[in-house]
Amino acid sequence: MSENTTTIYEQPLNERIRTFLRLEFLFARIHHSIQRDEIFSHREAIDAMLNVLSIFERSDLKAEIIKEVERLVTTLSALENTPGVDRQALDLLLAELDQTLDALQIRKAGIGQALKENEFLYSIRQRSSIAGGTCDFDLPAYHYWLQHTPLADRHNQLRYWLEQFVAVEAAIDISLRLIRGSTGFSDAQAENGFFQRSLDGNQPCQLIRVMINTQAAYFPEISGGKHRFTVRFMLFDINQRPQQINQDVPFRLSCCNM
Fold it and tell me: Considering its fold, how many domains does the chain have in total?
C-alpha cells in the first residue's frame, strides 16, 4: 500500500499521547487557518488557539511534555553503542531533542501567558462557551478587529500569539514523529471484521496505528488499554449506526512502543 491510496487511523493508549494528538490536531487547524485571508479563517485560528490554552490550564502539561522529551533522550541515548545504528542520524535527533528541551525550560512564564493576559482574547474566551456567543453583536470589539484591522496586521497578530506555543509545538512534533516511526507496519487480518491482540507489559505500547485502503467502505474502531487492544471494522452509513463487517479484512498494523 502506498501513502496515496491508504488512510491511517490512530488510537492512543495513555492520557499523555491522547493529549499530544489533540494538540497536534489543534496546531494543524491554526496553521491552516492563519495561511488564509478570510475573516472566518482567522476566527477559526483564534478558536483553536484558545482551545490549546484551555488544555494547558487543566494540568501541569508543560512538565508532562518535558518528561516525555527527556524519556525520548534517554531511550535514544541507549542506542549509541548499538551495532548498525546510524550514528549521524542519531546525533541529529538527540541534538534536536536537546534544543527542544532547552526551549521548553527557558520559557519561565506559563505556556501562552501573553494570551491569558490579553483582555481582548479574554472577552472572546468568556463568550466561547455559549453556542454562537462570539457573533458580532456579542463582541463588537472582535467584529471591529476582524473588519477594520489591515490584513497584514491581523496575520502578524495571529503569528505573535502562535509564537507563545512554538516550543510546545516543536516538542509535540518530534515526540509523535519518533513514536510513530519507532515501529513499522506489518500485515494483519481481522476475522469477520474483528481483531484482538495482547500487549507486552514490559514494552508499553503508546499508540496503535491501523492502515487500510482509502477506497474501503469500512473504517476501524480501535480500543485498548495496558494489556490488550481490539480493532473492529465497521461499515460506514451516514444514516444509521455503523455495523461490524462480517467478512475477513486484511490491513496493516503498527504498535508503537518507543
Answer: 2
The secondary element (H helix, E strand) that includes residue 21 is helix 15-34
Hey, what's the cell of 183?
515501529
User: Which residue matches cell numbers 536537546?
Assistant: 98
Q: Which of 136, 161, 178 is the last residue of a domain?
A: 178
Range of the domain at 193: 184-256
Question: For the chain, what is the largest distance between any 2 Cα atoms, rounded to a whole number of angstroms?
Answer: 66
Domain membership of residue 101 (yes or no) is yes
Side chain identity at 142, as an amino acid letter? Y
Domain boundary among 178, 201, 223: 178
Inter-residue contact 69 to 101 (CB < 8 Å): yes
Q: What is the pLDDT along the chain (258 residues), one digit of tens a residue?
A: 555 799 999 999 999 999 999 999 999 999 999 999 999 999 999 999 999 999 988 768 888 899 999 989 998 988 887 887 888 888 899 999 999 988 888 765 678 888 889 999 999 999 998 999 999 999 999 999 999 999 999 999 999 999 999 999 999 999 999 999 989 999 999 999 999 999 987 778 999 999 999 999 999 999 998 889 999 999 999 999 999 999 999 999 999 987
Helices (H), 39-196: 39-58, 61-77, 87-106, 113-116, 119-128, 140-148, 151-163, 166-181
Does residue 7 form part of some domain?
A: no
d(CA 74, CA 123): 43
> Are 77 and 198 within one domain?
no
- 219 pairs with which residues across the strands? 234
Distance CA 256, CA 203 (A): 10
Which residue, among 149, 66, 51, 64, has the nearest Cα to 103 in the 3D structure?
66
